[in-house]
């Protein structure tokens, strides 16, 4: 499988994606718009609460080509965050109240400056989260020592595992991904990750392998723990269940399988104002590989920059004051984060 | 070509209250209670419902509980196994009645 970008697919364009999403905002005479839902529940305009997290997208290069990927990441993507931009991010962290750096991609480990960044953050006593796809650890000899590197820098590892069977995992993430993920999880356990008392946190992320909502987080966590322990002697700390947002490859999948309308209706009908109050864009900023600023990774992939003065939309001109006063940019994909128990990079928001 | 079943009708289930609202209200209250987490988990109930949907061959229920089972974290192997449970019981119900056939056969035969 290749990225939409490599295939020159229409939905590789952010503009085309936004046009497709706009269709759903006109349903029910406009009542189906996300703005209308926020207004009805006294949350419009959506404002930040406190800036606590920088989520850095280190690039779109990845060793996997997952079907649901909202980044349209893949081995063909060359966009990566440069050392120059990374240093600007570190400068901004030094000048802010941010206490957590959440490193994502693509596969963040494929960025040549990845280890430098982690070490710099660790020295600053910033909590480091790495969204590791697991297979990267096994992909090449140069990554085999990642578990030890993570341990040394007390990184919190967050990894996707759509299911505890190969059929469901591989159908979404590619042939052989489940087997490789299990091998990687065993290496992480060997370093102490996910082991009680070690202090080394290993969290797993479930996302549905299709056009449906995720199950109740706690119930599924129990199931995952029991199955992974019994079948593979693998342990982990928490399971986060997240909803697939209609962006990039997942949006493409929804449209091509004629699931877009029913899935959008499902998200809209499941709007939960309590989930909306806890959405992750209220305490984070997403930084693109080129240093541009966004309210979240999904807005980044739709090229929806933060709504502040044009001259401050780059990390090089970071202003915590201006960002604190902004209106968060919203669109129809936001229904994915507010459906049911809510969805975020840390799981449910309710 | 016209069909008896229209998938769009599944969403209209609640509209049965348009005729005989008091009875519909009683039914949906009961339905909601039945599917709550109880001595059985909501997930177990969803799989039971899926199996029964196949046994009674209701396409509306099959669609609804396929989605529900997926959203309760079930996979295709678990869901098909549940359907086989229904098949085994239905098939078993056919076969166990053959004991009546066998009894009558022996009654009438030399």
Compact summary:
By secondary structure, chain A is of the alpha/beta class.
Q: Give the count of structural domains of chain B.
A: 2
Number of helices of chain B: 5
Low-confidence stretches of chain A: none
Q: Can you write the helix and strand succession of chain B as a string?
A: HHHHH
- CATH level 3 topology of the largest domain in chain B: AhpD-like
Structural class of chain A: alpha/beta
Secondary-structure-based class of chain B equals mainly alpha
What would you call the quaternary organization?
heterodimer
Total strands of chain A: the figure is 8
The portion of residues forming beta strands of chain A comes to 5-15%
Q: Could you tell me how far the N terminus lies from the C terminus of chain B, measured between alpha carbons in angstroms?
A: 54 Å
Question: Would you give an account of this structure?
Answer:
- The complex is a heterodimer of chains A (350) and B (110).
- Chain A has one domain: TIM Barrel (Alpha-Beta Barrel), CATH 3.20.20.
- Chain A is 37% helix and 10% strand.
- Chain A contains 15 helices and 8 strands.
- Chain A has helices at 14-25, 34-40, 83-94, 114-123, 135-139, 146-152, 166-173, 177-190, 217-232, 248-256, 260-269, 273-277, 297-301, 320-324, 335-338, and strands spanning 53-57, 100-104, 127-131, 156-160, 202-206, 238-241, 284-287, 293-294.
- An 8-stranded mixed β-sheet of chain A has the order 6-5-4-3-2-1-7-8.
- In chain A, strand 7 and strand 8 (293-294) form a beta hairpin.
- Chain A is globular and about 55 Å long.
- The mean pLDDT of chain A is 96.
- In chain B, helix 2 packs across helix 4.
- Chain B has helices at 21-34, 42-55, 59-70, 76-96, 98-108.
- At the A-B interface, helix 9 of A face loops of B.
